[in-house]
Amino acid sequence: MLTYRMGMMSVGGHQGRLLFPAIPFPMAASFSKKTLAALMGSAAVAGALTADIARWEGKKNVGYLDLAKIPTKCFGDTSDVIVGKFYSDAECAAGLDRQATVHVEGVLRCAPGLASQPQLLRASGSMAYNIGVAGWCGSTAASRFKVGDWVGGCLAIGPYFTVLRKDGSTVVTSGFINARVNGKLQPVDGLIFRRTYEMTVCLRGLIA
User: Fold this and answer.
1) Contact indicator for 130, 75 with CB cutoff of 8 Å
2) Which tops the pLDDT comparison, 7 or 140?
3) What is the pLDDT of residues 154-196, one digit of tens each?
4) Looking at residue 32, what is its pLDDT?
5) Other beta carbons within 10 Å of 19
6) Which structural domains are found in the chain, ordered by start?
7) DSSP, res 113
8) Cβ distance 162 to 144 under 8 Å?
9) Which of 8, 39, 181, 191 is the most buried (most CB within 10 A)?
10) Between 62 and 2, where is the model more confident?
11) b/e 147-172 (16+ beta carbons within 10 angstroms → b)
């Protein structure tokens, strides 16, 4: 059965979640023996990624049903959740590391070349954690990264970016910035801020 990855956003006074298909859960059973630091190239970049995710996802130590009635805990973690159960900070931190690892692995399966671009991988890992591996792999950013278009991929992580039509013309389109708020799908400030932040991390990685 297909499951979905949810990301809670509460920045800018809005509460909403982004819903996209994700790789099947339970995700904790699918992560490899590689550590997040090994995947990211260093402990420093791995730490930066988990800090990014924690910042944007927020943390709830008690298992709960999110807006889509999906059991969730800690930093937006939907694996092996018992609603009403208390999860310690240590358990939440361990879960964050596991889920970040799973999502980074998913990103690398879709765009292996990112293994040589740690900051681009960091930005992509944060985005994938929010919209799901399937959502990220189907994104314009992923398609550009697959062919080595680093700048174009970074720009496509952003809230708004330009795409080329078949007739040669261009059009500005929105990225993954919509969430269902009070039953209505609409752009959410928090997602716009998150996509802008991730795009900035990505672009800075090209000049560092």
Assistant:
1) no
2) 140
3) 999 999 999 988 888 999 999 999 987 788 888 999 999 999 9
4) 57
5) 21
6) 4-207 (1.10.530.40)
7) G
8) no
9) 191
10) 62
11) eeebebbbbbbbbbbeeeeeeeeeee
